[in-house]
Amino acid sequence: MDLYEYQARDLLRRHGVPVLQAEVTADPLAAERIAQRLLSGHCPLVVVKAQVRTGGRGKAGGVRLARTPAQAREAAQAILGLDIKGHTVEQVLVSEGADIAQELYASFLLDRAGRRWLALCSAAGGMDIESLAQERPEALARVGIDPLEGVTPEVAARITAAAGIAEPLAGRVAEVLVLLWRALVAEDATLVEVNPLAVTPDGTVLALDAKVSLDDNAAFRHEPLAGTGQDVAADPLEERAHGLGLNYVRLEGQVGVLGNGAGLVMSTLDVVAAAGTRHGGVRPANFLDLGGGSSTEAMATGLELVASDPQVLSVLVNVFGGITSCDTVAGGIIAALGRLGGLGKPVVVRLDGNRAEEGLRMLDQAALPGVTVVGTMDAAADVVARLAHEAGERQAGASDPRPDTPQEA
Ligand code: GDP
Ligand code: MN
Q: What CATH number belongs to 102-221?
């Protein structure tokens, strides 16, 4: 999970990383009050920053300096609602600002291929770090970190030396590197990035920006992030699915998809998308892996969730029976649809594998209204795409204010 900057800054602060005071808000007037308070301290300026989970905010006009509370309000007004790479700004961070003498770059990230961690560090940080990495790769030091050794003061000194940072600054940067590493380990992060790691005219080193990604698989070891609107950007259906323990990802199409096994579901998405090219360009509406069990309970919850997406016009259940046999799955589908009283949307079922014949016979006998059983994955994808397309046409026809308009055959 990627954190917002304000969450990442709080996290780093808890581990002793030097971070300036800041507060988050969705209201320009509140931004003015926060700025008033911060400016009445010792800081010469405040920075108003878009809180979106993407980088390059500075270049997109999402970071503005303000020297008066009124300027902070205006900056917040200008930034709130901005679209930055497809993310709408719903909150801004109002932070103490620093005078910057030099911008450095520092990060730790997981190097999966190398089975270790990687430290990246540069004396030329700031907004152009990506082009720096491309044009002058030697200016971005890369130092492998042994996960068992970690970042000791000695390792940190090696990193600053590789980045060409000289004493006395190097020692202060190395201290921050050790703290960043401790934060990464303690919080089970897979990425900690600070850009800029700024040096002020008096030589203080400050993390002015922070990007942290946490390992979701370790979430159980940590307190949930405190009341932070961390789900602001999440899709409501995905949130519900997550609460139900379903492995669901919402996409943009019209064909709901359920299957067992991530690989099968992924290839089902491809096959549905391909079939859609023959049926008005319909596309898969979601990924949903019911997992190995595919119990009645999981099937009912999954079907109901997928069909509750207003974009969904038809639903495909694609199951390959392995340990879970197809008759169990068929029983689950029959019980689930019975319990839900149908879905109100056409359902296509394709079963294959262990005890497929028995499963198909059960579905045949149940003769569920609105359910079509199709023998192969390709044919099932074709039928479900056609049904979605037809339903879409009917909807468009029904909402057409001019019933006399000639309809396409
Ligand atoms: P990003 O563009 O999304 O990475 O956002 P940053 O937080 O890194 O801000 C972009 C740029 O704004 C930085 O590289 C700095 O040049 C500038 N900036 C951010 N905070 C401050 C600050 O406290 N003082 C000054 N003078 N500039 C800042
Ligand atoms: Mn940055």
A: 3.30.470.20
